[in-house]
Every structure is written in structure tokens, then in C-alpha cells.
Amino acid sequence: xxxxxxxxxxxxxxxxxxxxxxxxxxxxxxxxxxxxxxxxxxxxxxxxxxxxxxxxxxxxxxxxxxxxxxxxxxxxxxxxxxxxxxxxxxxxxxxxxxxxxxxxxxxxxxxxxxxxxxxxxxxxxxxxxxxxxxxxxxxxxxxxxxxxxxxxxxxxxxxxxxxxxxxxxxxxxxxxxxxxxxxxxxxxxxxxxxxxxxxxxxxxxxxxxxxxxxxxxxxxxxxxxxxxxxxxxxxxxxxxxxxxxxxxxxxxxxxxxxxxxxxxxxxxxxxxxxxxxxxxxxxxxxxxxxxxxxxxxxxxxxxxxxxxxxxxxxxxxxxxxxxxxxxxxxxxxxxxxxxxxxxxxxxxxxxxxxxxxxxxxxxxxxxxxxxxxxxxxxxxxxxxxxxxxxxxxxxxxxxxxxxxxxxxxxxxxxxxxxxxxxxxxxxxxxxxxxxxxxxxxxxxxxxxxxxxxxxxxxxxxxxxxxxxxxxxxxxxxxxxxxxxxxxxxxxxxxxxxxxxxxxxxxxxxxxxxxxxxxxxxxxxxxxxxxxxxxxxxxxxxxxxxxxxxxxxxxxxxxxxxxxxxxxxxxxxxxxxxxxxxxxxxxxxxxxxxxxxxxxxxxxxxxxxxxxxxxxxxxxxxxxxxxxxxxxxxxxxxxxxxxxxxxxxxxxxxxxxxxxxxxxxxxxxxxxxxxxxxxxxxxxxxxxxxxxxxxxxxxxxxxxxxxxxxxxxx
Amino acid sequence: xxxxxxxxxxxxxxxxxxxxxxxxxxxxxxxxxxxxxxxxxxxxxxxxxxxxxxxxxxxxxxxxxxxxxxxxxxxxxxxxxxxxxxxxxxxxxxxxxxxxxxxxxxxxxxxxxxxxxxxxx
Lengths: 713, 121
Hints:
The complex is a heterodimer. By secondary structure, chain A is an alpha+beta fold. Chain B has four helices and five strands; from the N terminus they run ββαβαβαβα.
């Protein structure tokens, strides 16, 4: 019987684990420049902070929650290498420690040194100040944010990023808080990373294998907070305004008040990975929360204003982001900073990919002009740590740059395909002149992505920004009065149609049509080549009451309501059925078709049809698109998929293309049929009453799949 | 620095360690050392935390270290008397899944008895 002991306290065996100097009553020694930020080292903390332009730096230490520091330690000149100050401070109360810096430098054009302000560490992995969502309002008595230390010793228990092939993804876009903040979510920790874990079974049942989270980097929900005319509190709910690029938002963690948001976020990633679901983060590098000339100095502008921001000749902030400032993404300092941030999330947090908000700004040079060969985009595309990460661009910005189809991709970048969204919306509502555009959208937009492959196209009909799917078929116009801007905010060009009545109605004809239109859009989305993205809640008809810009609503307008009526349940079943259909047919996740007989059945891999087989109608007035994929399943069996979308207001009798001998068509999806006949969950679908024709009702989408012929009973 | 008390008793199949006091970065190293010293091979480890009103991140990490040490020695670990607020933190951060929880030391000994029986058989 032996008792086993292991020394608990870290032994101070290293030569550098002892102080060499005393400053302000603390034992210190010259620290290490790398890594930047604050790092726990034996016996102490290594603080490293850089500024190209500063001439002095002071480390400011606070006890958690205190307004006044308990120590200010100026960096000795000999602790500086280049523009980087580093110092190890010993015997600090690391768990109760908050810190910041005072930087000073010359009063030169572009500089904004304010040594009276304690700045946040841009490399901090946690911040205090907003530990509980919406709990405290900044009252001006102290800056809301201080930097904190984290242990960085999460037990991953064997977890790794999943490396799911891009083309196999079905993405689900969700807001961490919005997914479970509603009382109907029934989770133990509403509105948090931990709460999201409890919804993983829903994601699994739906069949999605990737969740794309709206910004989770620390942001201030009270930024520009105000009340609307109804006295309702409006917040920066979406969070597209980053305070800290290395820190998960504390207010999104049930354990934020314990300073354990990093652990909680990592536990979320690990939990999702265990169920085969990847995590993509929506990241906002195009601007920061420091705003314009009137904004607060939080970190960057008090350190190196002219490095971090694109400035005009008079030192004014350029505003390509529409939010006050523009991050100077192709400045060498900022490039490295962005790379460091992404490497951190990929390597330390096991994140599977990133969606870059207003990514075109990442291709602008220090003078604001778009670059032909943007170093930042090339660097990210070629970085070894990011090699397996998905990189997705929102390929436009608020400065007029629109690069859908032309974003500098370096063989790596995918794009939110805005053209897909617009085309599907226009076609479904019955606009003329959309047949050809829809045909292209259905096969992965080859006119834009032929070289880059179908995986470059992130297909979507709805996203957080704009109408939900239910609202897209319920409202002709936006209804943003509750945003407090007299309905001026939000897009006016929504390609939406209310199906006969604006908003809530009891007209069953209108409701039936809406239900069908939603199914039409979902069917086109989930049978198109490319990577489909669903907006959270669209799978069961989430509404925002016609608000198409709900960025400021931390209330039921934005929250997912989990109280499902029968209509919601059937739509959820339908959506899950479409995801399953997509998985069952490799031709729906394939590379661009070539028009040649790749499967060896004597049919081109893609063929186009109309009311007559092999007779597509591409005229301006055509509202019917039908296509047939000819391919094989993974085990080599014949696999034909026929999709016909009719956005005409009258029925059409289709002549079906003839299948090779021994095969017959079965019905997988018919959006005109009531549930459960709208989608057949059991492979291979329902046998047709007439084998060669199909009566396609008005505004209906049909999917047929091939099956081996069985003798008639 | 808060006072920390650690009492240990040994049953036929388990070592029961009762911790009293707050577990944070100032007390966790000592607690870890004493728990590690108390561990015995072929005996399960029962940590009675009913006297721990607060545990910081450092305290939780100490617990995980204890669990990992015990794991290398094939020692099953159970926690008893974990406060609800602490339970919520452990659940949200994933720490909880590493441990067996029990309502009482008696329950823990019974639960671990069946576990360690399964381990050794």
C-alpha cells in the first residue's frame, strides 16, 4: 500500500523564476517580448505590450472590481526591445488581478496618446467589466473594461477540429444569446455558451453539421444603448463591434462572473465536436469598438492610432465600415495582430473556421484603396495553423466595394453568395427574367466560381441581417419602427412578398401559400450545389414581426421562440427531410457539372428541362426551371435527381425525362402537398402514379429521385 | 488567505478527504498537495466538499488535477456535498463530466464500490 504524492506547488527551478529588481514594491525582472499579452510563468506573470510610436509604458494593476489601482509599475527603459515592453512581475494575486497600461508618446499627427487613460491589453484573453449580459450600465465612473488573466489549461480530452470537407457542410447561423434567451428554450443557463450545449440535440435532429456563431469576441452590449419611443431598452445585441479580439464575450458565459468564460467557450466547442458539429465564428476585423473622433480610447488608439486605423490627412477616421472607423488591415502591425488572433482561436480554442464581416475591407490598403494582391488575405490563406480552417468572406463593405465572385481567394476563400440569395428570392416570388439566374444558382454559380469550385459558394436565402424566412413571405416592407429610427434603418430592397396580406393574417389561403413559399425557398437552398446556410429558427418559422434589422433587440423580436405550433413542427420535419435528402445524394454536394456523361449512363451530368423533357425555357417570362443530375451514389449505384421549380401562378404538366432502363422516378419532395407528404423521409420516396408525367401545381417545387424498378404488384 | 482544513479517514475501500474552507488560488496548491498525499492505490478517493462554500477557477483546476493524478493510478474519484452554485459552474464549463457525484459519503462509497469492482475485475 503506497501513498503517492506529487508536488502541488510549481517548483521554482528555472533561473528566470526569481526577480532581479524591485519596482513599486514588487519583485520584477526583464520579461520576454513573446508571446504578447500577459502569460502565467513560474512564480509570476509575464506582461508584454508593444507600440511602434510610444515612448513610455506603465503597467497598472487592480484588484478585481476596484476603481483605483493597487500598483503602477513603469517599465524601465532597459526592459524595452524595439517597440515592445516586457516585464515579469512576481507574487501577484492572479485570480483577482485586473490590469491595463498607460502609454505616452509624442504629440505628432495621427497619434492619440492619453496617458491618463488605462488601456486594455489588445492581447488579453479575458476582460472584466461586462461579466453578466445587460447587468450594468456604464455610468462613466470607470472604463467598463479591464484585462484579465486566464489559465489556458483546458482539458480537451482528445478533441480536435473536425476537418469536415467544406462541400459537406450544412451551416446553421445563430446568435449565442438569441438561441436560448427566450424562456421557451427551457435550458438551465439561458443565453449562454452553456445553454447552447443543451440545444445540440436539436441541431443533430435537423442534420446540420456546422454552427456559425454571430460575434462572440468581447463586445459592449451597451455601446450606443438607448430607448425607443415605447421606452424599450435597445442594445448592441448583434455585437459587430469588437472590444477584444482574443477574448470570448464574458456576458455570453454563465460563468462570466467567475472569470471562466474561456473554459465555458471551449467546453461548447468540445461538446459540439463530439456530436460532429463544426464551429465557425463570425469575426469582425473591419473596425473596432473605439468609434470615430468622438469615441472612447479603449486600447488601440491609445497605443498606435495611426497604425491600427486608416486615417485621412487631417487624422480623421476613414469609415469604410459604416461604424466610425476602419481597421488598417494591411498595415504590417495589424496584419500580424489579425493573424495572431485567428491562430489563437484555431489552435487554442479548436475553432473550425471563420466568416469575415465586411471582408472587402481586409483587402484595402493603408490609403483605403483596394489592393490587387492584399497581403493579409494571402497570409491567412497560406498560414499553416489556419490551413484546415474554413475562411468565408462577406465580400463587400460599406465603402462601396462589392466583390462577390471576385474576392481575392488564393484557392482558399469562400464567399457569402449574395447573388444566390437575391436570385432565389426573386424567382420564388415570381419575378420575370430569373430562370437563367436560378439555373446557375442551382449548380453552384459557375459563372463566378468555376475556377474555385462549388465550395466557394456559401448559399443562403436568409441570414441574421434582413428578414427571416417566415417574414420574407409575410411582409412586402420592413417594419423597423421599434428600432427607434422612424423605420429609416435596414434594407429597402428585400425581394420579399407577403402572399396577399401584410403581416399577421388569418386568411388560410394566404397562410397556405406562405407555407409553400417557405418550402420552395428551403428546397432550392438545400438542393443547390455549394454550401447551404440556414438561419436559426427558419426551420420552424421564426418571425421578427417584419423587422429586417434587429441588431438592437435583446428581446423576443430577436430571440428564438421554441414554443412550436403544429405548423412549426411540420416545417421542422420538412427541413430535416431536405438535409437528409442532400446527404443521401452525392450529386447535390458535388463539384460543378461539366455537361458530359461523367456517370456513364449516356446522360450528361446535368441536363435542363421544361414542361417538355429536354426543352428548357430560358425566355424572360419563363418561371419554370427543371434540371436533372445524372450521377452515382458512393457505392456506385445509379443516382438521378430531378428538380423542377415552378414559380408561375398556374399549374404545369411536366413531361419527365426518361430514365435508363430498369429505373423509375419516385417523389422525394412536393412543396404543394400537406405534411407529411411534402417530403418523404423514407428512401427512396413515393412511387408516382404516372411514371412519365407529373402535374406540377402553381408555385411548387418538386424533387424526384431514381430507384430501381420493381415489378408492379 | 482563508483557513483551510483537511481531514482524512480511510475505509476498507476508500480514502475520504473532507475539505473545509474556500478553495482559491491561495489555498488550492496546499489542498492539492494534501489530497495527493492522501491518495492510496487500490482505494477510491471520496472528496467531501460540503464544507467548501466557494471555489474559484483555481480551485476547480486543482480538482481536475487531482482527477488526472487519480486517473493515472486507476483511482476512481467521487465528489460529495458540492454546493449548487459550484455545481452550476462545473456543469457550464464541462468540469463536472470528469467526476462522479454523490449525495453522501455513504452513497459515494457504495457507487465507487461498484465502479472499482468493475475496474479491478
